[in-house]
Specification:
Layout lengths: L1 E4 L4 E8 L12 E7 L1 H11 L4 E7 L1 H13 L3 E6 L5 E8 L4 E4 L8 H14 L5 E5 L10 H11 L3 E5 L2 H8 L5 E2 L3 H8 L3 E3 H13 L4 E5 L5 E5 L2 E6 L11 H11 L4 H16 L18 E3 L7 E6 L1
Parallel strand pairs: 1-4, 1-8, 2-6, 4-5, 8-9, 9-10, 10-12
Antiparallel strand pairs: 2-3, 6-7, 11-16, 12-13, 13-14, 14-15
Length: about 325
C-alpha cells in the first residue's frame, strides 16, 4: 500500500482552449474537474494501476466535500482531516499548442490542532504502508520544518518516505534524510542556488542533494527525460512524446510509477518515464492506467548525456 500525504489539496478545473488571448472572451473546447494536489494525483495513478492507496488530506467547505466525493468515485480510500477553511480551487488553461497556464489559489490556513490531527492521521495509517509519499506545497500555518517532522516520524515507524516539495520545506526535510526526493529542473535549480542549462548540470545538482541527505533523487527534466541518482550511480531515462495535451500531474504520475515498480533501480526509472510520458498525452490531470503505458518506447541508460542542453533551462 502506498500512503500519500497532501497538506494542501485542491479542486482542479482544466479548460482546453485554442489559444489564450488576454482581455478577450475565450471559449473552451473541453473541460474537466478533478481532485487535485500532488499526493492526490499519486494516489489516483496508483489506483489506476490496480494497487491500493490511502490518501491523507485536510478537507474543508464545499470544494473539500467535492474532492472527497470525486476520490470516492474513483475507488480511492480517503483519510480526511476536517478543517475550518475551504479547500482551494485551482484553474488550468491548456492551449492547443501545449502551453499550460495555471492559477493556483493559496488554500486555507491550518490551526495548530488541525496540523497535529494531520500528523496523527498519518501516524495511524503508516504501519500498513510500503511507502509514504509526501507531496506538494505546505498550506498557510504549517512551518517549513513540517515535512522534516513527518520524515522523522516515518523513519521511527520503519516506513520509507518519498518527498516531492521545494524551497525551505525541502531544505529542512533533507536534514532528516528522506529515502527519495523527486524535484523537477526548476526545483533542483532552486535547491542548489544556481541555473541548470544541461543534463550534466542537473546531474551535479542531484548529486548535491544526495550529499545533503537524500537517499535517492529522481529528477524530472520535462521533455528531456528523467535522472535517477542513488547509491549505485546515475541513470537517464527518456521516451518520445509526439503530442502533449497537458503536463498537469505528469511528475506525480512519474513518482507513482517509480514507487509502483519498487522505488529502486533501472526498472523503477523505466516505469517512472513510461507513466510520465503517458500522462502528458492525456487531458487535464488524468492519470494513466496500464492501457495507456508504452514501456517499449522507454530508453534507460547509464551513459548520461552530460552535454545535452535542457529544452527549458532552469533558472
Amino acid at each position: 500500500m502506498i500512503l500519500t500525504v497532501t497538506p494542501n489539496p485542491s479542486l482542479d478545473r482544466t479548460y482546453e482552449i485554442p489559444s489564450l488571448d488576454r482581455g478577450e472572451v475565450v471559449r473552451a473546447v473541453g473541460e474537466r474537474v478533478d481532485p487535485g494536489g500532488k499526493g492526490v494525483n499519486v494516489s489516483r495513478a496508483v489506483t489506476a494501476a490496480g494497487r491500493r492507496t490511502v490518501a491523507v488530506l485536510p478537507l474543508g467547505g464545499a470544494p473539500g466535500a467535492l474532492v472527497a466525493d470525486l476520490l470516492d468515485a474513483q475507488g480511492i480510500e480517503v483519510a480526511s482531516v476536517p478543517v475550518a477553511g475551504a479547500t482551494r480551487s485551482n484553474v488550468a488553461l491548456a492551449e492547443a499548442d501545449g502551453v499550460l497556464t495555471k492559477i493556483n489559489a493559496p488554500g486555507p490556513e491550518l490551526s495548530a490542532a488541525e496540523q497535529e490531527a494531520l500528523l496523527d492521521t498519518v501516524r495511524r495509517h503508516a504501519p500498513g504502508a510500503d511507502w509514504i509519499a509526501c507531496c506538494g506545497s505546505l498550506p498557510r500555518g504549517l512551518a517549513p520544518s513540517w515535512y522534516a517532522d513527518l520524515v522523522a516520524r516515518a523513519h521511527v515507524a520503519g516506513v520509507r518516505i518519498a518527498l516531492d516539495t521545494s524551497g525551505p520545506a525541502l531544505r529542512h526535510a533533507l536534514r532528516e534524510r528522506p529515502d527519495l526526493v523527486k524535484p523537477n529542473a526548476e526545483e533542483l535549480a532552486e535547491a542548489v542556488g544556481r541555473p541548470l542549462a544541461t543534463v550534466g548540470d542537473a546531474l551535479k545538482a542531484a548529486e548535491e542533494l544526495r550529499a545533503r541527505g537524500a537517499g535517492t533523487v529522481l529528477a524530472s527534466l520535462g521533455a528531456d527525460g528523467q535522472l535517477l541518482v542513488d547509491g549505485d550511480g546515475a541513470r537517464f531515462g527518456s521516451a518520445p512524446v509526439a503530442l502533449v495535451r497537458s503536463n498537469v500531474g505528469a511528475g506525480d504520475a512519474s513518482l507513482a510509477g517509480f514507487l509502483l515498480a519498487g522505488g529502486r533501480g533501472a526498472e523503477a526509472l523505466a516505469s517512472a518515464v513510461a507513466h510520465g510520458a503517458a500522462a502528458v498525452r492525456l487531458p487535464g490531470s488524468v492519470m494513466p492506467g496500464p492501457a495507456e503505458l508504452d514501456p517499449g518506447a522507454v530508453t534507460v541508460t547509464a551513459r548520461i548525456p552530460l552535454d545535452r542542453p535542457l529544452s527549458e533551462p532552469a533558472t
